Amino acid sequence: MKVELRNITHAFDGQVVLDRVSLEAADGEMLSILGPSGCGKTTLLRIVAGLIKPDSGSVLFDGKEMTDVPPEKRGVGMVFQNYALFPNMTVAENISFGLMVRGKRPAEMRERVRELLELVGLSGYDKRRTEQLSGGEMQRVALARALAPGVGLLILDEPLSALDAKLRSGLRREIRRIQRETGVTAIYVTHDQDEALSISDRVAVMSTARVEQVGTPAEIYAHPKTEFVASFVGEANMLGGVVKGDVIETSIGEIPNIDKIEDGKVVKIIIRPEELRRDCEEESLAITGRIISMESAGGEVKGLLACGETELRFRRYGTEAWFGTGDTVKFYVPLKSIRVISQRSTS
Ligand SMILES: Nc1ncnc2c1ncn2[C@@H]1O[C@H](COP(=O)(O)OP(=O)(O)OP(=O)(O)O)[C@@H](O)[C@H]1O
Ligand SMILES: [Mg+2]
Fold it and tell me: How many CB atoms lie within 10 A of CB 35?
């Protein structure tokens, strides 16, 4: 099912929490919505599900206007952070609840429950009660229950945030597998960038009430369009710059004005820490600086380099990664890895 949101605007008590949000999820796509706490993610999902009617804008499923269609008629399965399974019921009863309401026959329901338990990796769990399940198992059951009626869209609101880190990464791969196997369109809300980048076909990055950028995980990371996206997704060195004709002047040197940004414009330069290289393999900006600190993080070393007044974070990998504090070191930053974001004009 294809999902379109057009110019969704919504306010609570006069406070605008969604401001002309437009988004699309293609049929079978996994779209995540990534943004900080309070930016409007849950509100947006509730609007898609029909639990909130937006002040303006429209929701379309396969091109059909949904605004006045009640939640139970939208064919949307939902999974939330806080399990929300029915207590005092078995796993099978939880999963078949929505089928019973739809008047399915017992034999049909049993078959569907069996199929779904196999899909979510819980075969044989049908008679367990919800209080006898771990957090991860509960979320698998919640997923099976959401998928049970054969929905066209699955929405997941931080489904893994109550689980510990190790379980989270395993279960997110499982969710992705299940989404692919069933071909269901999914909208996945999270404030965890690793989760969003690893699980999705595309990511929509939100700041307060707005969508800042939509793209594949690789696009979002390598080509952030705004400062917010650059700083929210991954680590970034962010420096000021000013356009002087064919070059952009920055505190670590001049770089070519490839995008032909207007003379006098103030820009932000973004350099990812891993783009500070030791070898000059392509056209690069050479930077010489002094090591301020080095910090080991498993197989990776995180360092801080001072170039005059500017501090740059860098990363190194493997056994030859270490420098001494105070060492003078030369790095090369490939020009094509440097992102330039236009800001206001100085004139
Ligand atoms: N029913 C409500 N009445 C009034 N204000 C609300 C209501 N629901 C949400 N809000 C406000 O709307 C804003 C967006 O809330 P929302 O729950 O959509 O954020 P979120 O991005 O899901 O955040 P989190 O990551 O913390 O879950 C917040 O400022 C919140 O306080
Ligand atoms: Mg939320």
Answer: 25
Instruction: Mark whether 205 and 321 lie in a shared domain.
Output: no
CATH, residue 213? 3.40.50.300
Mean pLDDT comparison of 24-28, 121-125, 143-147, highest-scoring range: 24-28
Residue 277 to residue 331: CA distance in whole angstroms: 5
Residue type, 149: P
Atom 1 (ligand 1): residue with closest C-alpha? 12
Q: Is the CB of 347 under 6 A from ligand 1?
A: no
DSSP state of 123: T
Q: Whose CA is nearest to atom 4 of ligand 1?
A: 12
**Are 43 and 89 found together in one domain?**
yes
Q: In the chain, count of helices (H) and strands (E)?
A: 8, 19
Does residue 317 register a pLDDT over 90? no
C-alpha of 224 from chain center: 13
**Shared domain check, 66 and 100:** yes
**Nearest protein Cα to ligand 1, atom 18:** 40
Which of ligand 1's atoms lies nearest the C-alpha of 206?
21
Q: Which domain holds residue 255?
A: 235-345
